[in-house]
Specification:
By secondary structure, the chain is of the alpha+beta class. The chain has nine helices and 13 strands. The radius of gyration is 19 Å and the shape is globular.
Length: about 325
């Protein structure tokens, strides 16, 4: 049994879901990619009693995950008490998959300190109650890269990974996150899905075609222009479906104004990750991304935004 474990995760960009209709046997589904440089770093150390140190909002979530994890383990197999230090956090409610990555990181710390270093990510997710809709964050935690989630057949199942490929390592994503605008989560997200009109079957078919015949081949062949076009078209169609709920193709009014400005500058691979408000822009390389970041920092629509450049993460979370 180890005395200390450090878990470092990526963050998840979700390009959009594939289905939300009672007429389709699988629910949700979707595509996305894991990125590095904006993930969690958790340090777990054996202690006399459970303790969590770090940014308080994230620390409260960690305490809940620790409690849920312990409730899922039989009394005779409980992990030992530990102190968890939050050394780096993902901004919450920004569309970056913070809840799933944090829950899995906490579960990995607990499992590793109990001598279960090889527990699969799906099992960890079940122990902390993640994967209710998308499976991308779970599979991304374990494998990284570009991911396609095949949708859930039942409410209790984790959606299977039906497509996976390394994302071109030279490409970059520029992320723009409004500071005072949060995406839907928790009960508000559940309510939104319950009240939304079903996604038309034709829309799902179009999204599947773009994903299978355009986006995935472009990722595999490192065709930047084709991938940029596919990501934008995929996100535009998904955004139009969600527009009645989130107020537009993009959730944030500022991002709604910013997106066409970015496209006019020649950056075509733009989308919103999950419920937003973060938007992402695919860039050809670090130089391409640096130029865009410089332009955005002087744009009036970005005056109250965090701007980050992140790399694709083609491996799962690291455990040391």
């Amino acid at each position: 049994m180890t005395n200390e474990v450090v878990v470092e995760t990526g963050a998840r960009l979700h390009f959009g879901l594939l289905a939300h209709s009672p007429h389709i046997s699988r629910k949700f589904g979707g595509a996305g990619v894991m990125v590095s440089g904006i993930g969690y770093r958790l340090r777990g150390t054996l202690a006399e009693a459970d303790e969590v140190l770090g940014e308080e909002r994230a620390a409260q979530r960690v305490r809940r995950f620790v409690s849920v994890y312990r409730e899922s383990i039989p009394s005779g197999q409980q992990p030992p008490p530990c102190r968890i230090d939050l050394e780096q956090v993902i901004p919450p409610h920004a569309g970056l998959g913070s809840g799933t990555q944090l829950g899995l990181a906490v579960a990995r710390v607990q499992a590793a300190l109990a001598g279960e270093s090889a527990t699969p990510a799906i099992s960890l997710a079940e122990r902390v109650g993640r994967g209710l809709r998308s499976g991308l964050g779970i599979h991304g935690f374990e494998r990284g890269g570009f991911l396609i989630d095949g949708g859930k057949r039942s409410d209790n199942a984790v959606a299977p990974l039906v497509g996976h490929a390394p994302f071109p390592s030279d490409w970059r994503f520029v992320l723009v996150t409004p500071k005072e605008f949060g995406g839907l989560s928790g009960s508000a997200e559940l309510k939104a899905f319950a009240e939304m009109a079903p996604m038309p079957t034709g829309t799902t078919e179009t999204l599947c075609r773009i994903l299978l015949l355009q986006m995935m081949p472009a990722v595999i062949e490192a065709d930047f222009d084709a991938c940029s076009a596919a990501i934008y078209e995929f996100g535009r169609i998904v955004g139009e479906y969600f527009a009645p709920t989130q107020g537009g193709v993009f959730a944030s009014p500022a991002m709604q104004q910013l997106a066409p400005v970015i496209r006019a500058r020649g950056y075509t691979g733009i989308g919103q990750t999950s419920w937003g408000p973060t938007i992402f822009v695919l860039c050809r390389d670090q130089t391409h991304a640096n130029v865009l970041c410089g332009e955005l920092r002087t744009d009036p629509n970005c005056q109250n935004c965090d701007i980050r450049c992140v790399e694709p993460m083609n491996h799962g979370a690291t455990v040391n």
